[in-house]
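Risk register update: the risk of archive-format incompatibility is retired. Evidence:
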Amino acid sequence: MEFFRRLAPVTLAAALLVGSGIAPAQNQDKDKVFQFALQNGMQVLVVPDHRAPIITQMLWYRVGAVDDPPGIGGLAHFFEHMMFRGTTANPGDAFATTVARNGGEDNAFTTHDYTAFYEQIAKDRLRMVMGLEADRIANLDLSDASVRTEREVVLEERRMRTDNDPQALLREQMEAALHLSHPYGRPVIGWPEEIRRIDRMAAQDFYNHHYAPNNCILVIAGDVTPDEVRKAAEAEYGKLPARELVPRWEFAQPPRLGEARLNITRHDVKVPLFFRIYRVQSYTEAKPGEAEALETLAQLLGGDSTSTLYRKLVVERKIASDAGASYDGFNRDSGEFSVYAVPRPGVRLEEIEKAVDDAIKGYASASPDQGEFSRAKTQLVASATYRRDSQYEMAAAYGQALAIGLTVDDVEQWPDRIKAVPPGAVRDAAAKELNRREAVTAYLTPAPAGAH
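Archived output:
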């Protein structure tokens, strides 16, 4: 159920997938990850992958929805769209057309913490896609007409993906209630009235102070050598001047004094839903091992059809048709731990909530069963290992980590850190982090026939 994760292109397990596949420092150089910086401040990371003659280029900008100016929510996401509006050298949709004509694909995404753009293409087209990206860093079309057009595109996207989706609207309301004054409570796509305020001046200012080589991490994964990437990057990106950046704000996390509850009834809801989000520590906030314990707890509690919630609510008691849990900890500030369940017809949401709470209390009061605990950790590490085959996810792993302030070591050591989680750490995580005072609980229900 996609609605129960914060907007993000890569789940945490996927983001840290390459830990068991990237060779440690003592292995041959051809298998190592290389880092260097250009003179203009652009960071470059090279992930050699010689299985096929293709490359993945990703540019990660340290700008996201938390950087939206007050009153103009959604500007970072809007600007992700604007980067495809074209330049003098590559007008209109020439960027995407050129990539496609050369057998590649491209896309982009925005979260609260970063904005990323990527291309996957044959290795001999590396200089070409670098040149395309360098061109739009320096020469983007920010005319009034382009801004107006893209503003309407974003508003339509919001109508289709959020306003017409009751689960997306529920998530949006819960995020606002959970994070209080922290900008994680603002939707990445923006509130409709604030999107309408975006004009050319706001777009130009945002471009000038965020889309700069010294605010960017370039990740190249694929059939390349570090020397090849360095030479190409210096030729295409090295000529771009650094810009004066707007310092990123460091936001305080307002204390929560009690649980928030939402009851939302809508005519477009097909089935009822119980959903809760806890504000918890993220990988960037937690002490060593604490975030990994939350990751393991989420897998035990609701990671798949063998998990506690699914087994007890769906299989054994047959009071739910679906149930699960998730930990989203890959953020610059706080993380989120989510639980959800969909009741079977005739089952009250209060009964579902009690069953979920009983399962959580079980983990908070005692260490997990050793067999289930070992299986959960094996599943997490195995999932990471299997996903190594995606070159895109290998590139995303490192870019996402560096964009929020983690390191290459954090990516590479993740499987070993999961393996090292002791049973008592899972119990402590459930008791300490799954605190109802730090949670928003919601019931989403269909409106009765004839109700207004």
